[in-house]
Specification:
Blueprint: E1 2-5, E2 8-11, H1 22-26, E3 29-36, E4 40-42, H2 44-57, H3 66-79, E5 85-92, E6 110-116, H4 123-128, E7 130-134, H5 155-166, E8 171-175, E9 181-184, E10 188-193, E11 196-199, H6 210-221, E12 226-228, H7 233-237, E13 241-246, E14 250-257, E15 260-261, H8 269-281, E16 286-288
Parallel strand pairs: 7-8, 7-14, 11-12
Antiparallel strand pairs: 1-2, 1-6, 3-5, 4-16, 5-6, 8-9, 10-11, 10-13, 13-14, 14-15
Helix pairs in contact: 6-8
Length: 292
């Protein structure tokens, strides 16, 4: 495996950063997860835009242009001969000292690009649907660490994931500080009620998901009414259908929440239609490359 590290493609065993890197010491940095489907990097420009937005929000300068990062992502995929893969782009504050002061990092940001495979959930869950559970850990509030920033500090999400796994579930449903549905540990959430689609608004502690946006566009194309609306767990429990979206997860049906069966306990018609349409979109929307 070849890793792109600060301007060079190196072997995995040689891909190293300093123990004084603020990304390692404090989670001081940003990242993006991106998918490639048959030599097409899905929504690549949208992901890079979000990467730069996250970096700008935490006052982190990325030492490459958007076009340069796009080019190096393609080169890393090619170097690893990956037609279908998962790309992780990481930008950290760089090497500093043991203090918090970001000025001590001396403007030497670290940039890493990893291209590999990923399977977030077992294949059978995409066919039969998954069972999720609400966890005690609430989503970070915007006034503390805005969920719109895709930062390297993912402890909030990891704690939620641990709580779900400890209870025998694959995924955690997280509420915001007001008790409304926010998102899952790594995915956005949708419900179907009365043939219409509902998902929590971005202002309620949710990340602006690239896949989430794609699903909203697909629904519009299918003439399904969509609503970005606050949701309670009660509204999830009584919904006709439920599904999750995310770059790694793609679109995956949910058939049970907190022990309550959703609909008839099987992936619904609208969910399956959106899943099908989403897979079509991943073949057309993105940046193409060739492996020679």
């Amino acid at each position: 495996m070849k890793i792109w590290l600060n301007g060079k493609l190196v072997d995995k065993k040689d891909a190293k950063v300093s123990v004084f890197d603020h990304g390692f010491l404090y989670g001081d940095g940003v990242f993006e997860g991106i998918r490639s489907y048959n030599c097409l990097v899905f929504k690549l420009n949208e992901h890079i835009d979000r990467l730069f937005e996250s970096a700008h929000s935490i006052m982190l300068d990325i030492p490459l242009t958007k076009k340069e990062i796009v080019k190096e992502i393609i080169n890393t995929l090619k170097a690893n001969c990956l037609k279908d893969g998962y790309v992780r782009v990481i930008v950290s504050r760089g090497e500093g000292d043991l203090g918090l002061d970001p000025r001590k990092c001396k403007g030497k940001e670290s940039v890493v690009i990893i291209a590999d495979k990923i399977a977030l959930y077992p294949k059978e869950l995409y066919e039969k649907g998954m069972d999720i559970v609400t966890v005690p850990t609430v989503r970070n509030i915007p006034e503390a660490l805005n969920p719109q920033i895709k930062s390297l500090n993912y402890l909030n999400n990891i704690l939620a994931k641990i709580e779900a796994l400890n209870s025998g579930h694959q995924e955690a449903l997280m509420l915001d500080h007001l008790g409304y549905v926010a998102e899952c540990s790594g995915d956005n959430i949708f419900v179907v009620e009365g043939g219409q689609l509902y998902t929590p608004p971005q202002c309620m502690g949710t990340l602006r998901g690239i896949t989430r946006d794609s699903v909203l566009k697909i629904a519009k194309k299918l003439k399904i009414l969509t609503h970005e609306h606050v949701l309670t767990r009660h509204e999830l429990y009584i919904s006709q259908e439920c599904f999750l979206t995310g770059t790694a997860a793609e679109t995956i049906p949910v058939v049970k929440v907190d022990g309550r069966v959703i609909g008839d306990g099987k992936p619904g018609k609208i969910t399956k239609k959106i899943m099908s349409e989403f897979h079509k979109v991943t073949k057309t929307e993105g940046v193409k490359y060739r492996i020679t």
